[in-house]
Design brief:
The protein is of the alpha+beta class. It has one domain. It is 35% helix and 14% strand. A hairpin with a 2-residue loop joins strand 4 and strand 5. Helix 3 packs antiparallel against helix 7.
């Protein structure tokens, strides 16, 4: 399988899983509870080192206006979100290669430098933080055009979704029972590697219990965006 196809399959699988959980009213997402792990102090410094990634504070467009949430009260707007500082272990993808296993993500493209890793990690952290706060408009600011377009296609076929904006759809797809795990993931996600090839890339980060996840990300005009709703376990 070509590596580009692998990227699309991982992203699509994560989206379908997320949609399935929301539709079935299941419990916490198994891949949305992560913890910090690894040694060293290669800080990503989150959005402080990647000012473009904090664009949720300005130039929001229509997603900046808060939509009405499931409780009937207005949802927070993107301008209400303040990026938080995060520290990541870094270290690259080499420690997560498995002998004889599928290392297509760990060996995808090339290992990015520290500044690029910090920028992409900021996008992931900001997405997770905004989602954990229930700020759907802000979370959408860190999502790729591809996944937003998938949302729009889904909404066009779903008569039960009144708010067809990205924020409205993301809220509808998010299972309320997963709020606890989303908060844990946002607080404890620890990014180790960014494997890039052109505008496509994977962030490798550690999950609760030592589970290693890969989040597909895309570079859009110099800004990194998450290309899935959840990371996919490696191996």
């Amino acid at each position: 399988m070509r590596e580009g196809s692998k990227t699309l399959l991982v992203a699509l699988a994560a989206l379908l899983i997320a949609v399935g959980l929301a539709a079935c009213g299941g419990g916490d997402s198994s891949s949305s509870t992560t913890t910090g792990a690894g040694q060293g102090q290669a800080e990503s410094k989150s959005s402080q080192e990647a000012p473009k990634q904090s664009s949720a504070k300005s130039d929001k467009g229509k997603s900046d206006s808060g939509s009405e949430g499931q409780s009937g009260t207005p949802s927070p707007s993107a301008s209400d979100f303040t990026p938080k500082p995060h520290s990541d272990s870094g270290g690259g993808s080499a420690p997560y290669k498995v002998k004889g296993g599928d290392n297509s993500v760990q060996e995808f493209g090339d290992e990015a430098g520290s500044s690029e890793l910090a920028a992409a990690a900021a996008a992931l952290h900001n997405f997770l933080d905004a989602r954990a706060e229930g700020n759907w408009a802000a979370a959408c600011e860190y999502m790729s055009k591809t996944i937003i377009e998938s949302f729009e296609k889904l909404a066009a076929k779903a008569k039960t979704i009144a708010d067809k904006s990205c924020a409205g759809i993301l809220e509808k797809l998010t299972n309320p029972a997963a709020k606890g795990s989303m908060r844990t993931e946002a607080a404890q996600a620890d990014v180790h590697s960014l494997r890039t090839e052109g505008e496509q890339a994977f962030l490798i980060y550690t999950a609760l219990g030592g589970t290693v996840l890969a989040m597909p990300v895309a570079n859009e005009g110099g800004d990194w965006k998450v290309a899935s709703l959840a990371g996919s376990p490696l191996n």
